[in-house]
């Protein structure tokens, strides 16, 4: 409470910064005396929505708190209290600036895996918008036609399917929703764009011919990508995890990789066994020659400091599939992981061991995964006699 004679009428103002979350409204909170109710009553002054950074909001709060304090020191009764703040209009973004601003806001609040997804999306969007005449189009003039042009470009240039199309539409929708919350826009142009029908999700492993064809091509033309697929095949790691592994995560003496919790999909630190065939592939890489903080797969899929993203590798792999004449759309980089699981199962590795190696939390998850691959308990029952 204020120590002056009027301390009954005022309690010190403070900034509520919502734990630094810029997506939430920050405000100055204080308590002023309500003579009618004979009690202190909470009051809130919200920061202008046009203030996008923490520094801007904190500066605004300092001015507001200073004015409230001055009034309290002068014996002001706060009936009614009005604190005048300069009107700040919403920023005028171009299409490119608006989407980048929204995605950066998203990146500041989301967990690691989502950060990767949206960074990749932003890079692809910037690539597209810089090829068009829309980079400097005011964000307020963007409509559904712009959105459809971007998504159709993805289908033509990147060869994406309906599921990925819908995923990109959702990311754009999220970006525009952020701009609406920030009062940059009033409407979301993505809401007028239709979602495309999707096939039911299924896991697809490579058949024997596809596997041999791709492996031969990679051995002749792209050895680093061949190494990358070996890791997926033998460790059952996900591409998003593999691109984040560092030299220090490898314990070759004990034949294991320690997957850190911050990069693991299930958010747990867990070891992965390195099978002997993969050890033979790792030996020529001479990982001991690199800094422990280097990524195992960096630029050009060689060890180094530069972090890459799964889409970088997926695009390389997509071009290999084209070169090999494999047009099956559900065959992807991820198929190497599925293929490894299928072949390990067929080699007689029991489901409990597979569960541990896949890093599933329980047996039900593993059996469901195997069933989507056409394997599992049902397959065992169909193949056995008793």
TrEMBL record:
SUPFAM superfamilies: DNA breaking-rejoining enzymes (SSF56349). The keyword Metal-binding does not apply. Residues 191-382 form the Tyr recombinase domain. Keywords: DNA integration, DNA recombination, DNA-binding. The keyword DNA-binding applies. InterPro entries: CB (IPR044068), DNA_brk_join_enz (IPR011010), Integrase-like_cat_sf (IPR013762), Integrase_catalytic (IPR002104), Integrase_recombinase_N (IPR010998), SAM-like_dom (IPR025269), Tyrosine_recombinase_XerCD (IPR050090). Gene3D superfamilies: 1.10.150.130, Intergrase catalytic core. Pfam families: Phage_int_SAM_5 (PF13102), Phage_integrase (PF00589). It comes from the Bacteria. Residues 99-180 form the Core-binding (CB) domain. Belongs to the 'phage' integrase family. This is Tyrosine-type recombinase/integrase.
């Amino acid at each position: 409470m204020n120590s002056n004679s009027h301390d009954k009428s005022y309690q010190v103002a403070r900034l509520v910064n919502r734990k630094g979350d810029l997506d939430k409204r920050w405000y100055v909170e204080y308590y002023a005396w309500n003579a009618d109710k004979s009690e202190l009553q909470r009051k809130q002054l919200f920061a202008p929505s046009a203030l996008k950074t923490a520094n801007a909001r904190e500066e605004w709060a300092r001015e507001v708190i200073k004015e409230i304090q001055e009034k309290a020191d002068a014996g002001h009764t706060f009936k009614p209290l009005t604190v005048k703040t300069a009107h700040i209009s919403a920023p005028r973004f171009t299409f490119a600036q608006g989407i980048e601003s929204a995605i950066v806001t998203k990146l500041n609040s989301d967990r690691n895996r989502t950060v990767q997804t949206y960074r990749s999306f932003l890079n692809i969007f910037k690539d597209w918008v810089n090829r068009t005449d829309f980079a400097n189009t005011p964000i307020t003039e963007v409509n559904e036609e712009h959105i459809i042009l971007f998504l159709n470009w993805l289908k033509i240039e990147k060869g994406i399917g309906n599921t990925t199309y819908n995923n990109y539409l959702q990311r754009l929708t999220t970006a525009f929703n952020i701009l609406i919350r920030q009062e940059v826009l009033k409407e979301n142009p993505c809401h007028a764009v239709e979602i495309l029908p999707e096939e039911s999700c299924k896991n697809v492993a490579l058949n024997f011919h596809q596997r041999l064809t791709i492996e031969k091509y990679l051995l002749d033309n792209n050895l680093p990508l061949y190494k990358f697929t070996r890791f997926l095949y033998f460790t059952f790691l996900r591409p998003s995890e593999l691109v984040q592994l560092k030299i220090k995560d490898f314990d070759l003496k004990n034949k294991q990789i320690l997957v850190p919790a911050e990069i693991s999909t299930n958010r747990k630190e867990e070891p992965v066994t390195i099978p002997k065939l993969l050890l033979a592939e790792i030996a020529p890489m001479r990982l001991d020659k690199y800094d422990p903080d280097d990524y195992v797969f960096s630029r050009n899929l060689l060890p180094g400091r530069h972090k890459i993203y799964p889409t970088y590798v997926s695009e390389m792999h997509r071009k290999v599939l084209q070169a090999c004449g494999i047009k099956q759309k559900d065959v992807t980089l991820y198929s190497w992981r599925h293929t490894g699981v299928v072949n390990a199962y067929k080699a007689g590795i029991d489901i409990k061991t597979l569960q541990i190696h896949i890093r599933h939390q329980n047996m039900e998850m593993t059996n469901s995964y195997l069933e989507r691959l056409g394997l599992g308990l049902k397959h065992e029952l169909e193949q056995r006699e008793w």
